[in-house]
Amino acid sequence: MNIVEQDRRGRFFIAKEIMINNPAECIQILSDVLVINARYAYPEKIQYIGYSIHFDSLHDELLRPEFIPTYECQITAKEDNEYIVNWVRE
Length: 90
Prior knowledge:
This protein is α+β, with helices and mostly antiparallel strands. The protein is built from two helices and five strands, in the order βααββββ. The protein has one domain.
């Protein structure tokens, strides 16, 4: 079963500052997620909704779109623009 069939949807935010000042970090974050929706949520953040193997399966939960779980992206720098990304459900 794939991430869509398992309904591994999640919502997360990326600060505009990260996109401008550290695009490699932003690319690493987005490489973990199949983004299906993106929009400005706050003046300095973009909200993304997507599917990822790192998100919990919602297959057995009956959720309306506004109740898609939110995840925090915790980033640890390694070296040479490489990062470790850890996803934590809020």
